[in-house]
Amino acid sequence: MNRFAAQHAPMGLTAVLLALGFTTTTRLVASLRDDGANRADTERMERGYYERLLDSGRRLDAPVPVAPAAFDAGRLCDVVADLREYVLKPNLRTTHRGASWTTNSLGMRDREYATTKPANTIRIALVGDSIGSGWGVDDGLGFEPLLEQALGSSRTAKPVEILNFSVPGHAPGQRWEHFRRNGWSTGPDLVIFEATPADPGWDERRLRGLLARNLGWNSPLYREAIAASGATPGGDFDAYKAALKPHRWAILENVYRAAVGDCRDRGVIPAWVLIPRVGKPIEPEERRKLVALAQSAGFAVVIDLSDAFDGIEPSALAIAPDDFHPNARGHALLAKRLESALASRPQWRAIVEGTR
Amino acid sequence: MRPGLTRELAPPPRRAPHRRFLPTPALPRDEPGLYPGEPMTCRRNLAAFLLVLAHLALLLAVAKVYRLEGRAFQIMMTLATVALPIHYLLPFRLKLPGFLLASMVGLSLVFGTVTAAIVVTLGVGLILLSRLPISWNARVVAMAAVVAAMAAARAGLARTPVPDVVWPILGSMFMFRMILYLYELKHAETSESFTDALAYFFLVPNVCFVHFPVVDYRTFRRGYFARDIHETQRDGLRMMLRGTLHLLLYRLVYHELLIPMDQVRSVPSLLGFLSCNYLLYLRVSGQFHMACGLLHLFGFSLPETHRHYLLATGFTDYWRRINIYWKDFMVRVVFNPVVFRLKRCGQGPALAVATTVVFLVTWALHAYQSFWLRGTWGVSLPDALFWAILGVLVLVNVQLDARTPRRAKPRAIDLSARPLAIRAAKTVATFATIALLWSLWSSPSLSAWFSMLRRATG
Could you tell me where the beta strands, DSSP code E, fall in A184-283? Predict the structure, then answer.
């Protein structure tokens, strides 16, 4: 009996592990099943000898050899001396990490558009981050160009243009600052503010470095939260981090409110879309809080696509095994979901029918 | 690895792994579960095998549910589950070619046919080069020249039509095993078969783990069907389960417990960081257990790769328990030859020089490994200090051990209070020292490491 037990105990333990794996309710099991980078690594934590070696191994089996999320500001971007830190270079045509990258004369990863909106045309501005800009997929395969194509071929009767103001790595406040400086002159009818589950805390992480470099103190996007945090000029990165961290939700709320306010001042409809990251499911509580924040900030259209990748293996949707950016299939899914979500909203119908 | 090669010598105490098994003649007559002429260790038993297969299927399901180690690992596990029954039923003489075929299929499935074809072509070329009918020294010189040319291509100094993805795969298979193979060719009493060499370099699990244990050629060969296949397979499954547990524990540490270095602000947070940062190594031990466990399923009886390294009671003990294959590699290729050459200088100096050389070579070979796998040498001041300090600690320990008179090793741990307390104190001290050193090794710079210590203590 003992010999039998000793021989089969490993199989029993394996079965227990398997049963535990099917329990998806606890945070512990979610961590055990999480094959992506942890929060700290997502913030580009330096890692040790073996971690780097093992990761180099994991990337080798990627169908397309694309490196993970770390944003390389060098080749694609110009550094700017304001709180955006960097913007995409205009008129770029290159291949970056295995994907073709083309930017237009306005510095968008997009086709060319006239600066002034053509008559009888619906214009949408997309304000987003790396997923919005189609990081890791070829030109034309991001959800923005696919959505533009889908909306253009639907029964809108008017041409639809989506101008992509997304910049990889930009925090919500930086996204809005970039659009504020460049987007209004293009005359959008609708602004889509792309949000991700990483948004709470993103501005706070960026601000630590910005404030230490004496940037962002007077930005209307951040001023209120900075004052509430008690941060004052002359501090260092660590001091700002300690001061700002408890205010990360307040910082995001201020950014959202500022974006909504700017849109309302110009009579433009502000829409907010929550985009999922591959293999990094958002906690239900965090999702509810984020959606509620967008609603309370006053976005006229709030679309939650955080379940768009549910039920599909992350390996089938990510650009690389250890990357949360969607591949072409993931972007196509997002475009389809966003198109149908928009179509059901009265605000969109009003734009299409010209009755707003 | 010819039929009827080995039989087990029991018990095998204090014997080097590659000396644990000796050849035995094949059975001359028909036996149930055996094809004519097959060794007894190969005897098939459907009930026993189905249990093995069921356990492997469960491990595959666990890997899928927990998304363990990415796409390549899951392909390889699926492939192993499909290939194992076929391999099991094959006559003994076809088992090794069958294993090789599974490796090639795995390589194609994971990296694509073109990449796999290039890796195999270059790999076969390297093996043929090592077996050229010229003097051993001339072969080593030729090999060094070819490797230098490949390194130039890997570094981007020479333009070749070989895709970049080929170099880490090829490097992973050949960078250390070729050293051992050449060493073996120099010392082997009989000629080595080409199929054995192919199987040694193109190992199925190497397809998904480019960071791979340095399997010794002689151990690999002598362990092949050295014991009853079902016992070997059950050992392999136990290793794989251990690997699974290590990989899951790694996830817990990585996602739930590890804090970034810049969040260390107090002594408790420092202790937490040091422990968790060191425990990230669970991923390496997990992968190594998985890789060796998988080889067991195909009849390769290999020693374990790690032995409770978190419970080491001293630095030599730690060196013996963590990455045992590396330790054996260094002992065989560096330590023993140096000690042998210096034996006239006396035991103390010989051991001191040999230990120093082992750590210098280990440091250099870790940079060499980083070059092949990542494309950068990764040499830094923290890296150099880590190996230097660990080397000195082991050196001192080796000298102390050499001066302590040898006593018969007790069969069981003394559970009385005093020895247990001493053992616990030694374990904690070793763990703490290694964890501190590990944090230095993984630190981006020496100043960042000191800054972390300052924040924690002051």
Answer: 190-195, 269-274
Confidence of residue B413 (pLDDT cuts 50, 70, 90): low
B258/A contact by beta carbon, under 8 A: yes
Q: What mean pLDDT comes out for the span A114-127?
A: 92
**Who contacts B4 (Cβ-Cβ below 8 Å, separation ≥6)?**
B24, B25, B26, B27, B37, B38, B39
List chain B domain ranges: 41-228, 261-403+418-457
CA-based angle A34:A38:A39, to the nearest 5?
Answer: 130
At A185, is the pLDDT very low, low, confident or very high (cuts 50, 70, 90)?
very high
Question: CA–CA separation, A322 vs A314, rounded Å?
Answer: 10
Q: Is A183 helix (H, G, I), strand (E, B) or coil?
A: coil
DSSP per-residue string spanning A135-169: TTS-TT-SHHHHHHHHHHHSTTSS-EEEEE---TT
The alpha carbon of residue A41 is apart from the nearest alpha carbon of chain B, in Å, by 8
Mean per-residue pLDDT over chain B, rounded: 89
Substitution target from A8, A14, A97 for chain B, most B beta carbons within 10 A:
A14
The answer to whether B52 and B88 have CB atoms below 8 angstroms apart is no
Q: What is the residue-averaged pLDDT of chain A?
A: 85
Check: complex ipTM more than 0.90: no
Residue range B143-184, pLDDT digits in tens: 999 999 999 998 878 878 888 889 999 999 999 999 999 999
Residue of chain B whose Cα is closest to the Cα of A57: B210
pLDDT band of residue A215 (cuts 50, 70, 90) is confident
For the sheet with A122-127, list strands across it.
Answer: A160-164, A122-127, A190-195, A269-274, A301-304
Comparing alpha-carbon positions, the chain A residue that sits nearest to B249 is A32
